[in-house]
């Protein structure tokens, strides 16, 4: 899941009761038996995380995982299995070596990670750590000629001592929380990011420009390594990128995102006037031979002569950040979707409509994989001119909120599907899945479909430790996956897909949205 | 705090009400003003943790911290400031370099630590990781000649997947928990460790003997590095020792205690038949020039001609484990005790009795510092023959349960002090300190005093994250210390010491215990 703010849509609609949407109980029984009792979810997740590793866009790790998915899709009998380019992404990148430790005032290994798309240190380095006090480039003048090869951190009042949390890291939704999700949310006023008004926005832009200017000077001064504070605690830290993935990206200095405890340790020592010495070695590799981005596609072809050209899609993004193995973000969602396909094949389902799975790439950089696919197949959101396939898609179901089991579904403001989904959830009330909300949720690939007027949905999932410990962290690893949750989710998705495929009509749609300005 | 099981003593006594123990409100006001409003606790803790570092017994880190304490004791005006040897400990040890990462199936740095007192790898090594399946030495025959220089782990059914905890990491005692502490605990039947009966004990001893025999073969085979599972999660792991600290300790193989996620990752891959390759480099140093162990001592001399030879002692252990900086175990307790002394000096207190602080060493290996001191000054627990100083000690107060503020005190079965302590706690009810329990608590240095019939007490403290995250972990660092808690505790201790010093009589004692068999 990308770092978007959750958005909301309040339609003020009343749901009208209409004829009960049919549920095929025999099919549900078969799906439950396969999904809950013969699950392969943990095997699938193991290959995506433990074996393939981190799956940063266009990295060798993503390639390994894509190769495995192609193989597995064929093994379980999917058709039309292929990698499909969605457009140009840029460079792949991976860490080949990370080592850092303080050597003064005492030896302590540092829990950290190179920021994505940053260069290495060009061999082992060792230096005093210099605390740079500079709010603007002008303040940097005093450091001129003194920073070459040095390890540096930048003083900031924004970096505060850690505070204890007295709340659990891992949580499930209780009824109260689910009821809150059901309440229509107030529409936002103003544009996101403008909450504090123009003054605050201007201040932030000025600060960002200052930082960029400072980084540019540090590059010219040829610093050895920059240390940056990483959110998190107790050995967990959250990662991000330190440079652009674009082929023509500007060069940057080597940069480590340092776990809060290790960063604050060094910072307190430097603020206290102690001499801190560090040694480090970082090696990273860039991959630019094929800058195109790819999604993995596979199908269970439709069998109804009139409906087989129509499509039900499921998917989740397959790419991850680099410091964990992207287990909850989003091997979990990918696993559930792959397992749902496996379940449907295992019960020998011959769907009326074609069922298609897509494992997106470059979601983390802006939903690029799904947006590229949607533009190619369905419609360009900048002009809303639709292609023929637009009329053929019944629904797209997405999963990308961690390991937590499905507790319901966001309608994305599409009130007409409420009673349909309510019926389809009925056989899974015993699994805790019963909540339907008119609200929408953002941050991931169903938005690419929703954005061009196609029914695209993301399920409600138990939060677990997604927001506290795993989302983009070094601790987003296999151990965070809960087998029982993945099994339940895959079973529910398989049943939703089954019923979407067999339904007399495609799912009802919202009105077509207005064309959107092109994204930067 | 050492890893002892908490023990209990139920005396079945009724507390009788007797004359109200006096409290000097003016003194309490001064102590509160200094301790709560002008605290130096965080400065003190900073020097013990951030600057001095890990303080394993007889390591250079402990030496740095001891040197700082001597200097600070003099600065705040303590007298008779000195290091005092308590007996022979053995070797010091520290980590000079730690680096390890998987290189196949992909690169991932490993969060781990050398086990204390284990040797290094003698330079960088790189090898396939071998999963040894051997319950006995006989099973090792098939590996003969194949393990030289190799990185190994030993298969064990005891290693299970991680389970989510839905409880908070950081907790404070609520009234219910405090009430439970107040309930007299049932005396234990049988000896500790025999809960499962002789069969279980015999099985455990057999398993331990098997492990030792296997380790001995691995040493002969000259393995490169052994990986061991470390308890913990999310980047936190708990450490221990991998060899003896004694001068004549048997040699062992290099050994890493590996965070659960990284260990389980490798284990799953090896169980799944994947090839795992690792690179590592570990350097450690041993220090055996001076095998004696030392405590840091300082005093505020008594001023009453009749009482100045009598002593009130406070203390806490100063040594720590090696993978963190021993912040909650036990820079916290040491800080509180040092700060209590500082408060008493700052208010220019001229005590009737002498007030003495001791910062013990080698608590983690068996309360050696305090036991050695007690044997030298007060009595030998093996014969209970007392020395003259035994009659002169009023009380010893200890702190060693993390950063959590004092919530009350354990009486260690000494019912006669109940009403005294109740009065002394009264001015601190607003700080949440009000609980008196007849129960005892174990695991730390007050036991050395209690064991020879001297009034030795440990306070009740809020648990915070001591049991979940910090006790002997790599994350036991400065960030875990809560200033407000340390301030409150130091204030309460200073007031207890004040009143103990000024009291007409020494604190009442329990009966002298029977001589104890010598410890191994």
Describe the protein in words:
Two copies of one chain form a homodimer. Chain A is 29% helix and 21% strand. Chain A has twelve helices and 18 strands. In chain A, the strands form three sheets. Chain A has an eight-stranded mixed β-sheet, with helices on both faces. An eight-stranded mixed β-sheet of chain A has the order 3-2-9-5-6-7-8-4, with helices on one face. In chain A, strand 13 and strand 14 form a beta hairpin. In chain A, helix 1 packs antiparallel against helix 12 and helix 2 runs antiparallel to helix 7. The longest helix of chain A has 24 residues. Chain A is elongated, with a radius of gyration of 24 Å. About 4% of the residues of chain A have low confidence. Chains A and B meet through helix 2, helix 3, strand 2, strand 3 and helix 6 of A and helix 2, helix 3, strand 2, strand 3 and helix 6 of B. Chains A, B: Keywords: Carboxypeptidase, Endoplasmic reticulum, Glycoprotein, Golgi apparatus, Hydrolase, Lysosome, Metal-binding, Metalloprotease, Protease, Secreted, Signal, Zinc, Zymogen. Chains A, B: InterPro entries: CPQ, Peptidase_M28. Chains A, B: Homodimer. The monomeric form is inactive while the homodimer is active. Chains A, B: It comes from Pedobacter albus.
């Amino acid at each position: 899941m990308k770092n978007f703010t959750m958005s909301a849509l309040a339609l003020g609609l009343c749901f009208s009761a209409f004829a009960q949407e049919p549920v095929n109980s025999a099919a549900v029984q078969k799906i439950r038996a396969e999904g809950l009792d013969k699950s392969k979810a943990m095997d699938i997740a193991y290959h995506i995380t433990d074996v393939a590793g981190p799956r940063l866009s266009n990295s060798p790790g993503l390639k390994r995982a894509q190769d495995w998915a192609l193989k597995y899709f064929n093994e379980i009998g999917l058709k039309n299995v292929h990698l499909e380019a969605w457009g140009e992404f840029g460079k792949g990148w991976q860490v080949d070596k990370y080592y850092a430790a303080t050597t003064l005032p005492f030896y302590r290994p540092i829990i950290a990670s190179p920021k994505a798309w940053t260069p290495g240190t060009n061999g082992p380095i060792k230096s005093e750590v210099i605390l740079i006090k500079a709010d603007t480039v002008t303040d940097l003048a005093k450091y001129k000629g003194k920073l070459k090869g040095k390890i540096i951190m930048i003083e900031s009042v924004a970096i505060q001592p850690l505070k204890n949390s007295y709340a659990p890291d891992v949580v499930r939704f209780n009824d109260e929380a689910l009821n809150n999700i059901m309440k229509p949310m107030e529409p936002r006023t103003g544009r996101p990011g403008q909450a504090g008004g123009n003054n605050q926005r201007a201040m932030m832009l000025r600060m960002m420009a200052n930082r960029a200017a400072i980084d540019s000077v540090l590059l010219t001064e040829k610093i050895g390594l920059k240390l940056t504070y990483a959110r998190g605690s107790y050995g967990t830290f959250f990662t991000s990128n330190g440079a652009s993935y674009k082929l023509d990206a500007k060069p940057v200095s080597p940069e480590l995102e340092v776990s809060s405890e290790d960063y604050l340790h060094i910072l307190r020592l430097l603020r206290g006037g102690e001499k801190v010495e560090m040694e480090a070695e970082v090696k990273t590799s860039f991959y630019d031979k094929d800058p195109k981005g790819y999604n993995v596609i596979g199908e269970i072809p439709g069998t109804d002569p009139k409906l087989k050209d129509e499509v039900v899609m499921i998917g989740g993004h397959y790419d991850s950040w680099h410091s964990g193995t992207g287990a909850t973000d989003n091997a979990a969602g990918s696993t559930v979707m792959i397992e749902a396909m496996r379940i449907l094949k295992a019960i020998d389902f011959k769907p009326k409509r074609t069922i298609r799975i897509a494992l997106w790439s470059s979601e983390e950089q802006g939903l690029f994989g799904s947006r590229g696919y949607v533009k190619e197949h369905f419609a360009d959101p900048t002009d809303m001119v639709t292609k023929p396939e637009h009329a053929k898609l019944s629904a797209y179901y997405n999963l990308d909120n961690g390991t937590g089991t499905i507790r319901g579904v966001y309608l994305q403001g599409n009130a007409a599907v409420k009673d349909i989904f309510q019926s389809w959830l009925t056989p899974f009330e015993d699994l805790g899945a019963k909540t339907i909300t008119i609200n929408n949720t953002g941050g991931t690939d169903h938005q690419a479909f929703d954005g061009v007027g196609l029914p695209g949905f993301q399920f409600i999932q138990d939060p677990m430790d997604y927001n506290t410990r795993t989302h983009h962290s070094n601790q987003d690893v296999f151990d965070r996956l809960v087998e029982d949750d993945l099994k339940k989710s895959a079973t529910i998705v398989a049943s939703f897909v089954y019923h979407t495929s067999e339904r007399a009509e495609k799912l009802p749609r919202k009105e077509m949205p207005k064309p959107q300005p092109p994204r930067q």
